[in-house]
Amino acid sequence: MSKKPSRSHKHWNNGEVEILRELYPDSIMIEVMAALPSRTSRAITAKAIRLGIKATKEKISEGASRGAQGRHISEETKRKMSENNAYYWKGKHHSEETRRKISEAQKGNKPWNTRRQLSEEHKQKISDAHKGKPNPEHSKRLKELYAQGKIKPPLKGKHHSEETKKKISLKVKAYGFFKRKNREAKFNKKRLRGLLKRPTNPEKQMMSLLDKNFPEEWKYVGNGQVLIDNLNPDFINNNGKKLIIEVFGDYWHDPNRNWVISEQERQARFNKYGFKMLVIKESELDDEEKIINRVSCFESV
Predict the structure, then answer these.
(1) Distance between CA atoms of 256 and 262, rounded to whole angstroms?
(2) Looking at domain 201-299, which CATH architecture does it have?
(3) Which one, of 278, 280, 272, lies nearest residue 228 by Cα?
(4) Residue 10 has what DSSP assignment?
């Protein structure tokens, strides 16, 4: 049994060919589609090429703009189109011959915006989009002017006061540890793993202890689930009590570190919202009995 031909491969009758010859060169694709409703745009284009009929660029662009009028592509569709294009063109390059042909075809073509007058609203949008972005041409021009002596660098000849020097020195000393350690790739990897890992090992140890001795009473929220005055507590009470348990790592909560928020400040910020805080230090976690007693007393407050 022979397969039924699709409408795109259906035989073209004389009437369809005459409509195609009459409309295609002088009309847009939408009008041709309306005259030949049983044909797809691909079939119409292919037949026109076989017949030697060529439409002008103006007509094609006009039809494309009218056909897409009022349509908006969703972000999901844009993403899929981008992925498909990237997959299709991966590893593909134009030959030298193709590049030469493209170059010759583009010669003499004027840019799309030649003599185009932009509205004030359009100019303002362009200006807003570029605000805050570095302009490499601006920096090049400044360097040329500095070299020519036409302008002076804004800080040339200026000196910091002794007070300012002292503040800068304190800042440098505070971050001197990381300044030295940042040269070590091993340290950087370890630090990043520690920052991204939630829960941390001490938090896991505390979580296991609470689940074992105080089932369903405490919830771990140290991965950013809860923020109180921009502070993220480690554990919060599940029974409606405004109680918080914080697990302080020996390194990250060392009071001698400049970046550390003190225990008193954390408690004060939690107190503003009626929360009480219990601090468990990493070095104390090995004494399980002591931790259980402290949490029991904390809950009974």
Answers:
(1) 10
(2) 3-Layer(aba) Sandwich (3.40)
(3) 272
(4) S
CB–CB of 203/225 below 8 Å? no
For residue 146 the two structure tokens come to 């500095």
b/e map of 148-177 (b: 16 or more CB within 10 Å)? Answer: eeeeeeeeeeeeeeeeeeeeeeeeeeeeee
Q: Which three-class secondary structure string do you get for 170-224?
A: HHHHHCHHHHHHCCCHHHHHHHHHHHHCCCCHHHHHHHHHHHHHCCCCEEECCCC
At 60 the three-state DSSP class reads: helix
**Dihedral, 286, 288, 290, 296 alpha carbons, nearest 10:** 140
SS (H, E, C) 241-287: CCEEEEEECCCCCCCCCCCCCCHHHHHHHHHCCCCEEEEEEHHHCCC
Phi-psi category of residue 118: left, alpha or beta, with phi > 0 → left and psi -120 to 50 → alpha? beta
Domain ranges of the chain: 11-65, 161-197, 201-299
Tokens 């910091």 belong to residue: 160
Q: 85-106: per-residue pLDDT in tens?
A: 877 777 777 788 888 888 888 8
Give, in order, the Cα–Cα distances in Å from 178 to each of 175, 184, 194, 258, 274. 6, 10, 15, 12, 37
Tokens representing residue 65 in the block: 């703009």
Model confidence pLDDT, tens digit, residues 239-283:
888 999 999 888 777 777 666 678 888 889 999 889 999 999 888
